[in-house]
UniProtKB/TrEMBL annotation:
Organism: Paractinoplanes toevensis
Protein name: Dibenzothiophene monooxygenase
Primary localisation category: cytoplasm
Segments forming domain Acyl-CoA oxidase/dehydrogenase middle: 119-203
Ranges in coiled-coil conformation: none
BP term (GO), one: L-leucine catabolic process
Length: 392
């Protein structure tokens, strides 16, 4: 990213400096998000000539990996913002300039889409219980959303609802508008500071220019969900890199070893060296897989409106799915093997090394790899198209 990479590295270092203390104190990264907003982190994908960072998709995913290594909660909390920006960039329209101008200023967008209902997750056009109704006092938005990742730190929320005409609608409302309630009730075992709990709209006023057109959630973009799914794998790749770094530091800091160890000094122990070597190699392969899928997604994005868009989008979705299946499994194993190099010291709460496994497990649960592997297998064997709704 021309002209932004050095500043971005410094910014990421600042975010990562207090990550263990935040975990110990159960403190959400509000201060860190103020730094990110001032740095206009959300404008990375906007062209340089438009006041953005000029990042390609590969640049962006490399930065997500870096940020996730520092703090996966912060990286995850930006996912819905970057997804919204990507939808604007992939189908550019003059009427969306008002939203892009807010991105350019450093404002962050959250998402209020998922509802805890009995409807199947990920449907392309699921229908929503959250509704906009016409009243004597104007339009009003009412409903409850869950899995509201990042909304605690967002300035505006992209809301999926049924419009006053009964058709799907996307509405953007500021988080400080009357009737908007973002609760801190997320109780997941990992990603504890992403605000992934409840967002409620209690008779919230809505104006005509709050609507994003077209109202349909996915529109005509094939495999639009590839971006947010690959984003999750990028976060896991970043955590895996941190696992490898923590393993290295544990071995370097060890002052004693077992009487039956293969060497007198832990740093010279071939068993520990081998374990660290495996962890570092897994981190490298995970990052390479994410960036290869990101490059395919870049090609699909650049083909928008062309004859190859559908086939390139399918290829990108396949690469992202294959990366997830392998990276999820390897990362979960690696987060456990980390403790093999540290012994009793590694399990002390002061180190908070268990956060890696908890965060990976939580991220991987968004779309179990078993379902992804089945879809990949059906495609490879019979050419069965991948599902083209959410999660792909």
């Amino acid at each position: 990213m021309t002209g932004t990479l050095i500043d971005l590295r410094h910014l990421i270092a600042e975010v990562g400096a207090g990550v263990v203390e935040r975990d110990q104190e159960s403190r959400p990264p509000f201060a860190e998000f103020e730094l990110l907003k001032r740095a206009r982190i959300g404008a990375l994908r906007l062209p340089v000539e438009d006041g953005g960072g000029g990042a390609s998709l590969t640049d962006l995913f490399a930065s997500v990996i870096d940020l996730a290594e520092a703090d996966p909660n912060v990286a995850h909390s930006l996912r819905n913002h970057y997804q919204f920006v990507e939808t604007l960039l992939r189908r550019p329209r003059t009427e969306d300039e008002r939203w892009l101008s807010l991105v350019r200023e450093g404002r962050l967008f959250g998402l209020a889409a998922t509802e805890l209902s009995r409807k199947k997750a990920g449907l392309r056009e699921p229908g929503f219980e959250t509704v906009v109704t016409a009243t004597g006092d104007g339009l009003r938005l009412s409903g409850t959303k869950f899995y509201s990742t990042g909304n605690l730190y967002a300035d505006l929320l992209v809301v999926a609802a049924q419009g006053p005409d009964g058709e799907p609608a996307r509405i953007i409302v500021p988080v400080d508008r009357p009737g908007v309630v973002v609760e801190r009730d997320w109780d997941g075992i990992g990603q504890r500071f992403t605000g992934s709990g409840t967002t409620r709209f209690e008779n919230t006023p809505v104006h005509a220019d709050d609507f994003v057109k077209p109202g349909t959630w996915y529109g005509d973009v094939p495999y639009l969900a590839t971006f947010p799914q690959l984003y999750l794998t990028a976060i896991i790749a970043g955590i895996l890199r941190r696992v490898a770094t923590d393993a290295t530091e544990l071995v370097r800091a060890k002052q004693r070893t077992f009487y039956h160890a293969a060497a007198d000094q832990p740093v010279d122990d071939p068993i520990l060296q081998q374990t660290v070597g495996y962890l570092a190699s897994q981190a490298f392969v995970a990052e390479a897989a994410v960036l290869a899928a990101a490059a395919a997604l870049q090609q699909a994005t650049e083909s928008r409106g062309g004859p190859d868009e559908a086939s390139l989008a399918l290829r990108a979705s396949l690469r992202a799915a294959k990366a997830k299946v392998v990276v999820d499994e390897q990362a979960l194993r690696a987060a456990s093997e980390l403790f093999d190099v540290g012994g009793g010291t590694a399990v002390r709460q002061i180190n908070h090394l268990d956060r890696h496994w908890r965060n990976i497990r939580t991220l991987a649960s968004h779309n179990p790899r078993t379902y992804k592997a089945k879809a990949i297998g059906a495609y490879e064997i019979s050419g069965t198209p991948l599902p083209n709704g959410g999660f792909f």
